Amino acid sequence: MTSLLAGKQCHGALNPLHSLIYFAPEAEEEFSAAGLEKGRMGYFAGRAAAMGAVGAGVVAATFYNFSPALVAAHIPRAWDLAAPASVLTARLKAVDRVLRRLLGDSVADDPEVREAAELATTATEACAAAGRPLYAAHADLPAPGPAHLALWHAVTVLREYRGDGHLAALSTAGLDGLEALITHTATGEGFAEEFARHSRGWSAPEWEAAQARLRARGVLDFEGRLTALGHELRSGVEEVTDGLARAPYEHLGQAAVERLTEIGGRLSRTALANGAFPPGVFAGR
User: Fold this and answer.
1) Is the separation of the CB atoms in 8 and 262 below 8 Å?
2) Cβ neighbours of residue 258 under 8 Å, at least 6 residues apart?
3) What whole-number distance in Å separates Cα of residue 4 and Cα of residue 137?
4) Which InterPro entries does the record associate with it (predicted)?
5) With the CA atoms of 38, 43, 49 and 50 taken in that order, what torsion angle do they form, in degrees rounded to the nearest 10?
6) Nearest Cα to 94, choosing from 40, 51, 42, 145?
């Protein structure tokens, strides 16, 4: 049996390799070349394109913690500018470019990268699609041939699988998208507060109203920090999320999970050292 902790550590080691695309200038360049407007449109279209030309409601529901108004400013208009298939092609081009920039051109031929891609792909074999729309959409995409792109694809599939389960856990805990964002920020382990609010498109009054709701529930204190109940609530959400994400790591097995964590951690540390994320995004950085 693979422990929940091992699966969570593996996710933590791999997740930067997926998330770095959202901060890469190469992404905006490729999305713009495909016809999308510069700015936030590329993020929404790039991540949603696997689902097809879906509307703003679907994107807001599956992305969860973004302001529906911000989503509606870009979706579905993005599909009038670039078809989902073109957006997916542009995203993969961007992934190739940014991984080569952050990890070196040798990443395409690195035997350990190929090994990690094979391990991560094996892990995805145990993922079930029921109730996990973003996972299912990405799992239906063909896996790229080059090892570094195959690894990114498999990591993305695993990340969206966990993410869909996380939304179920948040919903069960009675946290809407904005409340989930605020409580995660309050843990000190997520986005910095200003970045979280602005990047997710929430106004100051909306943020303050959600904080008031959380104070009324006893989740936040009057300084915006988690109370004991708040910490218990967030811990419960993470425990449920870990449990719902367990299947791929159990399928892979403890030794293989540790090996994937080792390689993924090395690659993520290199990417972080080479500036994968700008300053001010995460709390404490």
Assistant:
1) no
2) 6
3) 25
4) HTH_67
5) 150
6) 42
Orientation angle between helical segments 25-34 and 84-103, nearest 10 degrees: 150
pLDDT band at 276; cut points 50, 70, 90: very high
Count H helices and E strands in the chain, helices first: 16, 0
Count of CB atoms situated within 10 Å of the CB of 84: 19
Quote the Cα angle for 59-60-64, to 5°.
115
AA letter at 252:
L
Share of the chain above pLDDT 70, in %: 98
- φ, ψ of residue 132 to 5 degrees: the values are -130, 80
What are the tens digits of pLDDT across the range 111-162? Answer: 999 999 999 999 999 999 999 999 999 999 999 999 999 999 999 999 999 9
Q: What is the pTM of this model?
A: 0.95
Q: Where are the domains of the chain?
A: 4-171+238-273
Please measure the distance between the N-terminal and C-terminal CA atoms of the chain and give it in whole angstroms. Answer: 35
Nearest to residue 96, comparing CAs of 140, 50, 147, 56? 147
